[in-house]
Amino acid sequence: MNTLRNRVQLIGNLGNDPEIINLEDGKKIAKFSIATNETYKNAQGDKIENTYWHNLIAWNKTAEIVEKYLLKGKEIAIEGKLTNRSYETEEGETKYVTEVLVNEILMLGR
């Protein structure tokens, strides 16, 4: 059961072109987001569609694949794990961010 802990699988479309960051030590980070959709009918029979946005982070070889092949609108499937971090704004306010650390990417669609 340990392999099932903190495992995320999502299929969605990129909201923007990925942001690629090259670090001084030669490592590479890709930051991007995908939208997933949920559709259901409410009690009145109306079709309701919700869109959820997920922040994704990819490192090194995975970031190179993201940089080379992914663009806004592309449909992908990812597998990864949830991570949390915090940072302090210039005003001294602490912000918290939840992201998916991507281990695998599968390009779908066109």
Task: Quickly list its features.
110 residues; mainly beta; 9% helix
Write the topology of this structure.
Blueprint: E1 8-14, E2 19-22, E3 28-41, E4 47-59, H1 60-69, E5 75-88, E6 94-107
Parallel strand pairs: 4-6
Antiparallel strand pairs: 1-3, 1-5, 2-3, 3-4, 5-6
Protein described:
The protein has 110 residues and is mostly beta strands. Helix content is 9%, strand content 60%. Strands 1-3-4-6-5 form a five-stranded mixed β-barrel. The mean pLDDT is 94.
Whole-Å distance between the termini?
35 Å
SS-derived structural category: mainly beta
The shape is globular
- Give the oligomeric state: single chain
Task: Give me the side-by-side strand order of the main sheet.
Answer: 1-3-4-6-5
Please compute the radius of gyration using only Cα atoms.
16 Å
- Return the average pLDDT rounded to an integer: 94
Portion of residues in beta strands equals over 45%
Instruction: Please work out how many helical segments DSSP would assign.
Output: 1
- State the order of secondary-structure elements, H for helix, E for strand: EEEEHEE
* Helix content, binned percent: under 10%
Query: Unreliable runs, pLDDT <50, ≥5 residues?
Result: none
Count of DSSP E strands? 6
The major pleated sheet works out as: 5 strands, mixed, barrel
